[in-house]
Design brief:
elongated; single chain; 3 strands; alpha+beta
Length: 76
């Protein structure tokens, strides 16, 4: 029997000031805060939640989780 290991699924947590809270257009893309890259969604969500809570009173600050694994291997 072949042993299979789960494929790595990378997630990027990033954020910054947006032009409109309803969009993802950053005011200054060069100053986007990269929180980190995580190997599973749970760790990424924990990091995202921490940053989002820290900036909860600032409507123009937005943090997101980007599914890098979907960008790197879109067919999977």
């Amino acid at each position: 029997m072949e042993e299979t290991t789960p494929k790595q699924k990378l997630h990027l947590v990033m954020g910054g000031r947006v032009t409109d809270p309803r969009t993802m257009e950053f005011q200054d893309p060069e100053s986007v805060h990269v929180v980190g890259v995580y190997s599973n969604y749970d760790a990424a969500e924990e990091a995202w939640r921490g940053q989002a809570q820290r900036t909860v009173d600032d409507a123009e600050m937005k943090y997101v989780i980007v599914h890098l694994h979907k960008l790197l291997t879109p067919d999977e």
